[in-house]
Amino acid sequence: MAWKRGDVFTLIDLGDGSLLITPRFLQVNRLGDRVAEILNEEGVTLDDLLTSLDEERESYYREHYAES
Prior knowledge:
Layout: E1 9-13, E2 19-23, H1 27-42, H2 46-64
Antiparallel strand pairs: 1-2
């Protein structure tokens, strides 16, 4: 496993002068990876996702803020 800048680790003092360093995987990273896997499996591209978000934002605006 290669470490890179920004990685987070847990440092555990084993009590005999030894330390154990383990990577700390953040829940957000795990969930982001899972979302990316699902999108890939479904064939959804980043452009598709951004287009859908723009459409939803516009729809939400019309429903909540646009004058009738």
